[in-house]
Amino acid sequence: MTVNYIEGCILGACCNLVVRHRRKIPKTQWGDNLIHLERFLTAHGRFPHKPYSALHDTLFHIKAGKESLDPMRRLVSDKEHVKRYIAATVGEERNVPTFAVLRSRKEANDYQYPHRCVIKPTHASGELLLRREGEGLDKRRITSWFDLDYYEMTRERNYKGLLPKVIVEPFAFDREAPDDFRFFCVNGVPKMIFYDQNDNTIERFRSVLDTNWEQLPFSLKCQQRSPPPRPCCLDGMLEAAARLAAPFSFIRVDFYTDGNRFHVGELTNCHAAAMQTFVPRDSELRADEFLFEE
Questions:
Q1: pTM for the full model?
Q2: What would you report as the CA-atom Rg of the chain, rounded to the nearest whole angstrom?
Q3: How high is the pLDDT of residue 182?
Q4: What is the phi/psi pair of residue 292, to 5°?
Q5: How far, in Å, CA of 202 to CA of 187, rounded?
Q6: In the chain, what are the domains?
Q7: Average pLDDT over the chain, rounded to whole?
Q8: Residue 202: its pLDDT value, please?
Q9: How many whole angstroms from its chain centre is CA 281?
Q10: Higher pLDDT, 20 or 37
Q11: Span 131-147, mean pLDDT?
């Protein structure tokens, strides 16, 4: 539901209180959920709804409810272990190969990294290093990932207690920037596809499409741009996404492709932590009707 002026003032004061004292809020379910609620209210200016018939509300309840502790959600949150699930579900050939999994600071410091590789922590999101043609490495940054507690940063419980590790991979299809498609799946059904484009400018663009490769009249966070040509492997990615998404009420399945072949990049439980707003802002209801229609 929306909030009136008085409720908005009260909620604003409560949100400010949570922000100021975030470090003191207990690492318990109610403490985590208080932080999730503050972030949701700040992003969307409303309370989350039930039942789960809207994207942001679904994502909020995944974070705040028992689903966040589902062993399957914890499994796919780990960038090493998710590869076991991918291999068992759609085949080992759909994984990006692995050079190494480094399980201690000493291993990470002593390892002879390939001259060209991707390096990232297995227990967090958004962190990575790209090594190009033997350029120098910031090993201090790599070893610092063993101190990174992504649960403490985000209070997303599916990351709680994951062992810190570093995974080293080749560039997918030997390309620094392979095409990256993200499939939003609801109850095991792919519904919406993101293709992000970055032209090395401050502004970032995004193509948002349905599964027939038709552009949708809304986006999240970024402005829309015309989509690239339909990839030849789209049908294969749709089939793989449906199989990988089958156990989940919602999951985002990410792919790397060169247009003909594809790898599964990762599975994301909670897109952008339920914080991104729709563009245009008044398209949320239309988007939710599209995503959650039977």
A1: 0.91
A2: 20
A3: 96
A4: -110, 10
A5: 35
A6: 5-47 (no CATH), 98-169 (no CATH), 176-292 (3.30.470)
A7: 90
A8: 47
A9: 21
A10: 37
A11: 94
